[in-house]
UniProtKB/TrEMBL annotation:
Protein name: UDP-glucose 6-dehydrogenase
GO molecular function terms noted in the UniProt entry: NAD binding; UDP-glucose 6-dehydrogenase activity
Lineage of origin: Bacteria, Candidatus Roizmaniibacteriota
Involved pathway(s): Nucleotide-sugar biosynthesis; UDP-alpha-D-glucuronate biosynthesis; UDP-alpha-D-glucuronate from UDP-alpha-D-glucose: step 1/1
Species of the source: Candidatus Roizmanbacteria bacterium GW2011_GWC2_37_13
Catalytic activity: UDP-alpha-D-glucose + 2 NAD(+) + H2O = UDP-alpha-D-glucuronate + 2 NADH + 3 H(+)
Active-site annotation: 261 (nucleophile)
Length: 429
């Protein structure tokens, strides 16, 4: 098949490379000339494990093409995906400007054959109907199209694996032909197929991300209880998670959830609830607990650090990505700076993206040891593998004082005690 994907972020580019790798011809449409030039040369711009190799392989095979031109790409495609961002507006609402603008451009460039316009961007319920109206208004009279909602469930850091092995592929559409074509395109991909209508597909995405955020906030809430009672949150949640009805995944407490999806989607879902006069206190609480998780980590550090010189390990919102959008590290660093802390940091790939937020207010080091040398305390904010087997004895030797604040529970309290650290973790005695 020939397909077009508008957008080349973590969702657009991963999806494009995977579909190209199956043998399809894939156009990727963007609007920033410099970015397109880098992509054409095989530089994915973002860091996602395996993506560079997959991109270069498919450029070489002449299956993936980058352009800012909707005419060539859309007019020869059977399926066009919209995969552009839907950031949060000040009101908490999802900003649909990019999605609607893209829909207009797709509409103008439709040819006479049936084109399926599928939205992968996370959009509030009802948006695909708006996309349909916009396309209808702008398309040439003779052209035919159908809209579909195909929400994305890939996680950053495991994007390629998740695209190939999703738990489910959701196809929401009122058009039989669109459903048939999308089933054909997804044929090599694993996972259960759920065929549904537009509104349900849109709702599935928000319900899923809201549930994930809620699970994390629940885990953080339990960790607060544990901290005040001497219970161990890991043992508690290991046991709770053994109940098949509950499950263990996404019950890891820490410094809170971040990223470009969970925080934004919970806010947008709350906004939809408000418009529909639905009492969504349940979700408001998830959001509030997330902020409390970050604040209480800051308080523990501020109240217990023996000095103001600290080293921070991990800046990205989770491991295996360079993405720092709504990363807890940004909030924690800015709060600690206000309290006069002197901060050195290290992250395997995200430092470049953090520099613009703090300029020279914090320093960036070449490796974890440089970041912790001569500090009074080390803070672990992202659980990169690189930190899990770090030489702890060496760390202790090069620090001024042996204080560790582990925001992701990556070290064992017993071992840390044996090594002579003063060790603080989340919800564990
Ligand atoms: C999330 C969803 O997991 C994907 O299914 C979805 O496709 C994606 O959003 C999206 O909407 O595009 P992602 O933002 O990449 O994926 O990251 P997650 O793995 O969900 O992690 C989000 C945050 O929660 C991270 O900051 C992570 O550290 C935190 N987290 C996760 C916890 O604090 N505890 C946990 O148990 C799990």
């Amino acid at each position: 098949m020939t397909i077009t994907i508008v957008g080349h972020g973590y969702v657009g580019l991963v999806t494009a490379c995977v579909f190209a790798d199956f043998g399809n011809k894939v156009w990727v449409v963007g609007h920033t000339k410099e970015k397109l030039a880098r992509l054409k040369k095989g530089d994915p711009i973002i860091f996602e494990p395996g993506l560079k190799e997959l991109l270069q392989k498919n450029i070489k095979a002449r299956r993936i093409f980058f352009t800012d031109d909707y005419e060539n790409s859309v007019s020869e495609s059977e399926i066009v995906f919209i995969a552009v961002g839907t950031p949060t507006k000040e009101t908490g609402e999802a900003d649909l400007n990019a999605v609607i603008d893209v829909a207009r451009k797709i509409g103008k460039n439709l040819k006479s054959k049936l084109t399926v316009v599928s939205c992968k961007s996370t959009v509030p319920v009802g948006t695909n109907k708006k996309i349909e109206t916009v396309i209808k208004r702008h398309k040439p009279k003779s052209s035919e199209f159908a809209v579909a909602s195909v929400p994305e469930f890939l996680r950053e850091g495991t994007g390629i694996f998740d695209t190939l092995n999703p738990d489910r592929v959701i196809i929401g559409s009122d058009s039989k032909k669109a459903i048939e074509l999308l089933i054909k395109l997804h044929q090599p991909i694993n996972g259960k197929r759920i065929i549904t209508n537009l509104a349900s597909a849109e709702m599935i995405k928000y319900a899923s991300n809201s549930m994930l955020a809620t699970k994390i906030s629940f885990a953080n809430l339990i960790s607060f209880y544990c901290e005040k009672t001497g219970a161990n949150v890991v043992e508690v949640l290991d046991a709770v998670g053994l109940d098949n009805r509950i499950g263990r995944s996404f019950l890891y407490p820490g410094v809170g959830y971040g990223g470009s999806c969970l925080p934004k989607d919970v806010r947008a879902f709350l906004n939809t609830g408000k418009k529909l006069s639905i009492n969504s206190k349940f979700l408001e609480a998830a959001e509030e607990i997330n902020k409390t998780a970050m604040d209480s980590f800051v308080d523990v550090v501020a109240n217990n650090s023996p000095g103001k010189k600290i080293g921070i390990l991990g800046l990205s919102f989770k491991p295996n990505t360079d993405d720092v959008r709504e990363a807890p590290s940004l909030y924690i660093i800015s709060e600690l700076l206000k309290q006069g802390f002197e901060i050195k940091t290290y992250d395997p790939v995200a430092m470049e993206n953090v520099k613009k937020f703090f300029e020279n207010k914090i320093s960036f080091k070449k490796n974890p040891y440089e970041a912790v040398a001569k500090t009074d305390a080390v803070l672990v904010i992202t659980e990169w593998n690189e930190f899990k087997q770090i030489d702890l004895a060496k760390i202790k030797k090069i620090m001024n004082q042996p204080f560790v604040f582990d925001g992701r529970n990556i070290y064992e309290p017993e071992l840390m005690k044996k090594l002579g650290f003063k060790y603080f973790s989340i919800g564990r005695p």
